[in-house]
Each structure stands twice: as structure tokens, then as C-alpha cells.
Amino acid sequence: MHLAAFLIAGNAAHSQALWRHPQSRRGGFLELDYYLHIARTLERGKFDLLFFADRLAVSTRYGDSHLHGLYIGDQDATRLDPLPILGALAAATSHIGLGATRSTTYSQPYSLAREFATLDHLSGGRAAWNVVTSVNQGEADNFGLKETLPHDVRYDRADEFLEVTHKLWHSWQPDALRLQQDRYADADKVAAIDHQGAHFSVRGPLNIPASPQGHPVIIQAGSSDRGQDFAARWAEVVFNIQPDLPRLQAFYRDLKNRAQQFGRRPQDIRILSAVMPFVGQSRQHARELQEQANALADPLVGLSTLSSHMNVDFSGFALDAPLGDVQVSGIQGLFKLLRAISAERQLTLADAGRLYAQGVLTPQIAGTAADVADWLQSIIVANGADGFVISPSHLPYGFDDFVDQVIPELQRRGAFRQDYAGRQLRQHLAASP
Ligand SMILES: Cc1cc2nc3c(=O)[nH]c(=O)nc-3n(C[C@H](O)[C@H](O)[C@H](O)COP(=O)(O)O)c2cc1C
Fold first, then answer.
1. Fewer beta carbons within 10 angstroms: which end of the chain, N or C?
2. Is 227's C-beta closer than 6 angstroms to any atom of ligand 1?
3. From the CB of 239, is ligand 1 less than 6 Å away?
4. Which of 48, 22, 40 has its CA nearest to residue 390?
5. Which ligand 1 atom is the nearest neighbour of the CA of 134?
6. Cis upstream peptide for 322 (omega within 30°)
7. Is residue 432's pLDDT more than 70?
8. Superfamily assignment of 2-278+362-430 in CATH?
9. How close is the Cα of 214 to the center of ligand 1, in Å?
10. Is 429 a pocket residue for ligand 1 (Cβ < 6 Å)?
């Protein structure tokens, strides 16, 4: 079983009520020690990695203005840049993987290759990149685009982006740097990449020597058909959000098969599914924790976040009517899922907004440590996932209960590592307990 921790360097996580939770430290996301506590707790729990999701705009789709999202504190209201935070966490940890989101639509390959090569050197081989193509008009507005690129064009650009960054990361042979008095580097072991493509023209080489991992671990979370092809070609870790076992198994089977179509082995991709655990001393206590968190979820916050994710303004839709079928250019996989759940449970738009605010459809598990461990293991055994993205309901202490209660239970069962076998992230992902 592999475990990743889901973080946003801001007021929310998957739960958009996170900042309103009585146990959350409001404004803590602006302070370094907030992240240091989280990272040290997760490393104590032997997590494979922690990673920060990210977005490059406040929500501006709901009501075609930023006022609503900021007034009520939706998922995109405030986000620090995750990479400087990871640099600080690299100094405070020694084993846990450190992942950050960067957009292929609003970055340049050369600068992004430097950011992650730098992190990989400074962390001793623990860097990971969650590759996104970005989803909404607010981001396009911040980067000079009249409108967001069409969905599949974003992925075509992303494919070329990954080709260029991999060429750059490997433009130095591992032993090229000599640091000798008479020879700084074996220059003939460092090659220009001379990339000329539809989207990028990059000469290279990178001005950073080969890093410990060679290149960062590549993470992706697309769930559309095109998104899954992209993942099958490039991703070593794939995140997904699926509400039940049949959907988990279908996604797992499909993606593992796609990997083989791209000449890769099924085990080359670790599929981690998002889950939000509520761990109690009793089942009743756990349910109370879950109800307390969910009661803080405001339907209009969820609709503001939904508007941002789907790049559609839901402010004009009737709250008491079902969620209609609209063409979305954002996270198509998630919208399809929300429509299916809304139909199954006959949700109104307000209900769907509340559900979305609770956790962006991330399934919630409430129970004792043994109950949560049972559920996690049942998904692994049923080939629903290779592991999980653990999503917090509050921060900075939202992972403490899981690390203090569920990890020891999983370790006792032999279902999770007792300790790290190596120092690098790719080693954690290769190891099975
Ligand atoms: C667990 C998870 C985390 C994600 N994190 C981000 C993120 O940080 N930033 C972002 O723009 N999109 C994020 N997404 C959305 C996907 O990265 C992807 O951009 C989106 O699913 C669109 O792809 P699709 O149309 O192929 O589904 C996330 C999705 C999932 C399931």
C-alpha cells in the first residue's frame, strides 16, 4: 500500500470547509511551522510522499467575479506557491517525497526543469511533479490568453512539454560533473537538446547537473479519455477520485491496460485513490467528527469551486433543480462523476454544491482505526488501487489521528511499511510492504 497526503497551501484542501473547522489554525497556511508540523507528522507515518495541489487564479467564474469566492472562502481563494515550501520542508525531513503541482499550460519547460532538478538535488532525490494542464478562464486571464486552450490541445502541449523536460533532465550524463581543479565537467557528456516542436523551441542543455533521481517522479490526475492516455504514457503515480469500488476497479483496470499500450508495465504506474478518513476512538465518535466537518460545508462555496473546476458559471442555475448536463472544458472526469452521483441520489444543485464543498467527491471513511484499515485493505485486495491520497478535514493536525492510529494498525497487519527502505521517492514507490 502506498500513501500520499493531499495538501493545498491555502484555506482549503478537498474540503472547502477546512479553514472553518474549529481545529484548523486559521491563517496558519501563511506560516512555515504549520507545514513543518504536517511534514514531520507524515514522515513519522512513513508516507511515500506529500504533495500540494495548485491553481493559478482565484475563482472568477461564479457570477463572473472574484467577489463571491473570496467572500465565502472557496477552494481557490488563497494559495501560496508550493515549491518554496517544499524547499523548506526538504531541510526539515529526510525521507518523505515532496510533490508540487505545476501547469504545462502556464509554464516553460526550461524553467520548470530547473525548479524540479533543484528540488531533487536539495532533497536528496525526493522531488515529484503533479502535472496539470489547468482548467479555467481565471488562469487564462492571468497569463495573457484570451481563453483557455481547448481540452485536448492542452494535453497535446503537455505531451511535448514532458518530452522537452525529460530531454533537459537527461542532458547531463550522471558522471559529467567532475569538480576537479583542471576540469569542472566532462563537457562532451553534456549535450544540447536542440528541441524544435509545435509548441516549444529549446536548445539546452540544462544548467543543472543530473539530479539523484534523474528526473522527478511524475504524477498526474486526469480522468478523461485523453487524460488517461497522457497518464499511461508519462505518469508514475496517478491520483483519482472515485466514490465506490466498481468505479475504482474500472479505472484501475483501464489505466493498467493503457500503460501496456504505451509499452509500459502495469506496475510502472501506482494508482492512488483519494479518501478522507475520520478516525475515532469509537464508530460513534468517528461519525461525530465526520458530521461536524460536513456541517461546515456551505453549498454556495461548493458551487463556487465547481464553477472554477468546470470553467462554467453556475450562479445562474436554479438551486432547487437537478444538476443539468452542461458542456465543461475543465475537469471533465469529475463533472461526469458529479452528474452520475446527482442522478443516483436525485440531488438538487444545492445538494450537489454541498457535497462538492465537503470534499470534491472524495469518499469519506468514518470509523475506528481498525475499520479504516479494513476499508483501505479491502480496496487494495480488490484491485481498486495501489494506495491512497489521504485528504485532511482540518490542518495542521488533520493527519495526526491517521498517523497515530491507522498507520500502526496497518503496520501490525503487515499492510504498510515499518520503515523506509531507501532515501529516494522512487524507491518508496517501487517497494511493496
Ligand atoms: C486528486 C486530484 C488532484 C488534482 N489536483 C489538481 C491541481 O492541483 N490543479 C489542477 O489544475 N487540476 C488538478 N486536478 C485535475 C486534474 O489534474 C486534471 O487537470 C483534470 O482532471 C482535467 O483532466 P481530465 O479532463 O482528463 O479529467 C486534480 C485532480 C485530482 C483527481
1. C
2. yes
3. yes
4. 48
5. 11
6. no
7. no
8. Luciferase-like domain (3.20.20.30)
9. 25
10. no
User: The pTM is what?
Assistant: 0.96
Single-letter amino acid code for the residue at 411: Q
Model ipTM? 0.96
Residue 29: pLDDT band (50, 70, 90) is very high
Answer yes or no: is pLDDT of 279 > 60: yes
**Annotated binding site, which residues?**
54, 101, 151, 155, 223-224
- Can you read off the three cell numbers belonging to residue 395? 490542518
Residue carrying C-alpha cell 461519525: 287
**Grid cell at residue 18:** 477546512
Q: What is the DSSP secondary-structure string of 188-210?
A: GGB----EE-SS-EE----SSPP
311 lines ligand 1 (CB under 6 A): no
Where are the extended beta strands (E) located within 115-196?
127-132, 177-180, 183-185, 195-196
pLDDT at 167 over 80: yes
Task: State the chain's mean pLDDT as an integer.
Answer: 96
Give residue limits of the domains in the chain.
Answer: 2-278+362-430, 293-358
Looking at the DSSP assignment, which residues form a beta bridge with residue 183?
Answer: 180
CA 250–ligand 1 middle distance (angstroms): 19
